[in-house]
């Protein structure tokens, strides 16, 4: 029963992931943590994040913004490693709550504002570095990355495909770390294998659904998801 509930949550989460290019693991992680345990959920979702995001990126490879992909990964990755180290030496619950408040505020502001206000270039570099740091500390840097990407990648197809490629790369790194730490137990591998066909189906469904969403509605959906992500961070921190 626990596995069935997790698989249902996983399918929903990764359909959203395929539509927008982010938020899949944020939806699936709380359910997985409660049903399967933290270490197992992290290992499963990192493996499936690599698989599903990589699949979506390959399906839409012509829409990858390679320049932005190089900039994002090149900037985030060193800070991800710093964040992983900080997670082992600092108590970070208060920072996570502050981060949640900031994300909720950004989501509300962009939903309520009639005009999108652009941040200066230097601020975008700071946001990108912080996205890497938060990703390393909490595996939740996607919200800040979205704030950066919304301004730098205007086309929804480029947005979701480029972000999917970013997550495929980062999730592969996390999955390899989990593998080296022995988190891929027999039960975890079994759940991963059960998730594979669901990930394929969710990716194809999400890929088709996003074509029916206008650019304006896509942006609104993105900001609604930011609100949800921020709220989840506040609830779980």
Give me some keywords for this one:
single chain; 237 residues; mainly alpha
How many structural units, i.e. domains?
A: 1
Q: What best-fitting shape do the alpha-carbon axes yield? A: globular
The proportion of residues forming helix, as a percent range, comes to over 70%
Average pLDDT level: 86
Q: Give the H and E element order.
A: HHHHHHHHHH
Instruction: Please give the count of helices.
Output: 10
Task: Tell me about this structure.
The chain crosses the membrane at residues 42-61, 73-102, 122-150, 162-182, 188-206, 218-236. Keywords: Cell membrane, Membrane, Transmembrane, Transmembrane helix, Transport. It is a multi-pass membrane protein. InterPro entries: TM_pro_TauE-like, TSUP. With 237 residues, the protein is mainly alpha-helical. It has one domain (2-236). 84% of the residues lie in helices and 0% in strands. The protein has helices spanning 2-20, 24-36, 38-59, 66-89, 93-112, 121-138, 142-152, 156-180, 186-209, 215-236. The longest helix is centred in the last third of the chain and has 25 residues, at 156-180. The two termini are 27 Å apart.
Concise overview:
It is found in: Cell membrane. Helices cover about 85% and strands about 0% of the residues.
SSE layout and pairings?
Blueprint: H1 2-20, H2 24-36, H3 38-59, H4 66-89, H5 93-112, H6 121-138, H7 142-152, H8 156-180, H9 186-209, H10 215-236
Helix pairs in contact: 1-2, 1-8, 1-9, 2-3, 3-8, 3-9, 4-6, 4-8, 5-10, 6-7
Family: Belongs to the 4-toluene sulfonate uptake permease (TSUP) (TC 2.A.102) family.
Membrane topology: Multi-pass membrane protein
Organism: Gordonibacter faecis
């Amino acid at each position: 029963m626990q596995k069935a509930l997790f698989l249902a949550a996983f399918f929903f989460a990764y359909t959203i992931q395929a539509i927008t290019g982010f938020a899949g693991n944020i939806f699936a992680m709380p359910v997985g943590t409660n049903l399967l345990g933290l270490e197992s959920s992290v290992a499963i979702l990192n493996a499936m994040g690599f698989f599903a995001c990589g699949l979506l990126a390959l399906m839409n490879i012509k829409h990858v913004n390679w320049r932005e992909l190089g900039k994002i990964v090149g900037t985030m990755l060193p800070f991800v490693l710093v964040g992983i180290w900080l997670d082992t030496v600092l108590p970070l619950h208060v920072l996570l709550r502050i981060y949640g408040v900031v994300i909720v505020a950004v989501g509300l502001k962009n939903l309520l504002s009639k005009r999108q206000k652009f941040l200066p270039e230097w601020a975008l570099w700071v946001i990108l570095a912080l996205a890497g740091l938060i990703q390393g500390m909490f595996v939740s840097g996607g919200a800040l990355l979205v704030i950066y990407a919304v301004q730098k990648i205007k086309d929804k197809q480029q947005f979701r495909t480029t972000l999917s490629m970013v997550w495929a790369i980062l999730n592969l790194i996390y999955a390899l770390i989990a593998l080296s730490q022995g988190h891929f137990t027999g039960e975890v591998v079994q759940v991963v294998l059960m998730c594979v066909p669901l990930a394929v189906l969710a990716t194809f469904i999400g890929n088709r659904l996003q074509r029916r969403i206008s650019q304006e509605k896509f942006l609104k959906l993105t900001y609604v998801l930011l609100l949800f992500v921020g709220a989840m961070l506040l609830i779980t921190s």
